[in-house]
Amino acid sequence: MAQTDRNLSGTEENKLSGELRFGVIMNWYYRDVLQEDFLPKQIDLLDDFFPSLLIEEKESDGKTKVPAEYDLRDRVIRAARYHDHLYVSGSRQVTQILGRLMGTAQMSLEKERATTAELLRRAAGDLCNSPEYVAALANRSLQRLADLTDDQTDRFMSTFNDYFVAVCDRRAELALDEKEQELFPIEDETFRNVMENVVYQWRQGTIEGAAKAWTWLLLFSLLRNECGRLVTVYLSSFRERRSYRHTERRVEVVDTDDPEKDGREEWFYDGDDLDHRFPGVDWYCDRCGEYLNDQEGFDDHLHVWKCTRCGYENRIEMDNIYDSGADYEHDGAPSDPKEFYRALKERADEVNSAE
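The structure corresponding to this sequence follows.
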């Protein structure tokens, strides 16, 4: 049976592991940062860091031991309070699932692996559809870091950096067959995309950036390969992704006699699809990333388009357009409407004059 209370003073526990596991992160957070002697129970940790995502609380008087259970239909763990803590004993299945969620299971890896995978799949879907919840997770991380003492903050920043390096080093050393034999294998593309979000936020050098980087790692350690779905929906800052333009516009440097305009960059549009509301813009679904322009019936004169692949309703508006992939990926400013429409007007005038 997987342990629920773990003494952190042993020699093996003092080694900083490069395994990407929720239990490993909790281990160094409580041991190295908070410098506490014991790790809270697994079910309490999951409920504290991801409230109501994986575990729903059952009604109880708080004084009776009610066995936890896994609801196969809703794919959620249900547990009751017993003296202010969620009670997990009494269900071997739930104990096995918790061990796989935390990455601490010692028994046969195949036991309840498929059930846990379904649970993670459902949780990832809920997160993709709940931007408010995801933003709240990042805010909870920020509050945790803000509540640390100065010494704890220094230890967190140092340990986080060492752990991130250890995770990347371990990943680089794993052979392909070793990656595929892991309990919940992570695809290389998913690993790269999530880690890019972690690095981008960490390099901000702010407590807010550190909190977002940590939140991405927490999500990744829990959801594993399912975390790839979150990357397609949220920016590194946990704001919802928006469509951006791949246009035929080109940037040119303006050389004039006016000192205020000389050397300035301006956008020029070369395309011919001027009958569109937003000429030259490629639209992608904000949930699943599907290319929308080719979907049957798509018209950018509509203000909302429901993706035919996943059913998500995408806003087709000017403030959802970005000048470049970099602006889009890193939460930059949307396209300047004045520049956008100026470039289109100049192109329209050019076409009309040629006729």
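The first strand starts at residue 6 and ends at 7.
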